[in-house]
Design goal:
about 130 residues
């Protein structure tokens, strides 16, 4: 009789192990299917935000299938300054603001810039003289 109990215990442990393995395998398959479904959207986002070159799309798709490589790509793309477009030099931030109309003659970084509009400094001078309010 004790031998029968051992056999039944072994069968029960084996069945439990197989059930656990089957559940983990189905979870892994579901995760792989979800990854395969999300990779095209991830590639589109990486290309749209100029993180990878469109010519490297297939290479990137293969790399994203590997979780280690996907994390390495994530680390590299987290840097907002790391893009595929070439860097431009000599474009000051203040010039971008001036072109958008964000500065006036009092806050303009270029002193004495010629303009056809009435300057803030002229208005302040006239207010000081009492010519305008």
């Amino acid at each position: 009789m004790p031998d029968n109990n051992k056999v039944l215990d072994l069968i029960q442990c084996t069945a439990t192990a197989l059930d656990t393995a089957e559940r983990e395998l189905s979870e892994k398959r579901a995760a792989d299917a979800k990854v395969s479904q999300l990779i095209p959207a991830a590639l589109d986002a990486l290309i749209a935000n100029e993180r990878i070159d469109p010519a490297d799309r297939e290479k990137a798709a293969e790399a994203l299938m590997n979780p280690v490589r996907a994390l390495e790509i994530l680390i590299k793309t987290a840097d907002v300054n790391n893009t595929i477009r070439p860097r431009t030099m000599g474009v000051p931030v203040a010039e971008k603001k001036a072109s958008a109309g964000a500065t006036n003659s009092l806050t303009d970084p270029w002193v004495g810039r010629r303009t056809s509009a009435k300057r803030e400094s002229d208005l302040a001078y006239e207010r000081g003289l009492g010519l305008t309010q």
